[in-house]
Amino acid sequence: SLRESEHLLAGMQYAIEHKVDAFISFYCSGGMDVKGNLFSLQKGMGTVILAMNMLKRKNILNVGVLSSKTTGGLFVNTFINDFLWAESKDSTSNLLFAGKRVSAGVRSSDKEEMPSDYGYGQALTRNGMLDGCFENRLEIKDKLSALIKVVTKKAETQAKKETSNVTIDKSLSA
Q: To the nearest 5 percent, what fractions of the chain are helix, strand and coil?
């Protein structure tokens, strides 16, 4: 239902109205409630996806950080992020939609054993599902701040707006 997403949607609306540089989502949910009905789940997922697309249209960088198992409709929303990180590389919890047992059942035809680190942050980064993992929670702020500055070129843009004491000879530009 939309009630499950109301804080996320309110944050996105604030980001759009105040023209922020980036919107950071921390995913730590077991998923959206499917007890209501299928239409409720679809409406919640669709609304969040539309809001994320509005962030993109406004050139607001969208960064997601997975901090625990993320399932259901919430899992679908993670793939709209511009960047997706795991909160900790040493996380011993599965960050994927389904665990080893369910995924192994799906793969039962190939008879391969699931890797021991299946679904963990390091494995997801190694296999290209995530952009990276943080060593610990203490480095999240610094690394995301640096990433946002590089991607949005904020420092460069601000430098261009500053007045300069350098003059350029017009005859040099042909």
A: 50, 10, 40
Phi, psi of 164 (to 5 degrees): -120, 150
What does pTM read for this prediction? Answer: 0.73
Calpha distance 14→172 (Å, rounded)? 46
Amino acid at 18: H
Which residues, listed in sequence order, are joined to residue 22 by a DSSP beta bridge?
A: 61
Task: Return the bridge partners of 84, or none.
Answer: 64
Reduced to 3 states (helix: H, G, I; strand: E, B; else coil), residue 135 is coil
Looking at per-residue pLDDT, the higher value among 28 and 98 belongs to 28
User: In the chain, pLDDT over 90 holds for what percent of residues?
Assistant: 21
How far is Cα 1 from Cα 6, in angstroms, rounded to an integer? 9
Kindly report, residue by residue over 53-112, the tens digit of the pLDDT: 999 999 999 998 887 766 555 666 677 889 988 887 666 566 765 666 666 666 666 677
Sign of CA dihedral 26, 141, 87, 133: positive
Q: Is the dihedral of CA 40, 96, 133, 156 positive or negative?
A: negative
Handedness of CA 112, 114, 116, 119 (dihedral sign): positive
Closest CA to 95 of 114, 73, 123, 116: 123
For residues 21 and 60, the answer to whether their CB atoms sit within 8 Å is: yes
Amino acid at 152: T
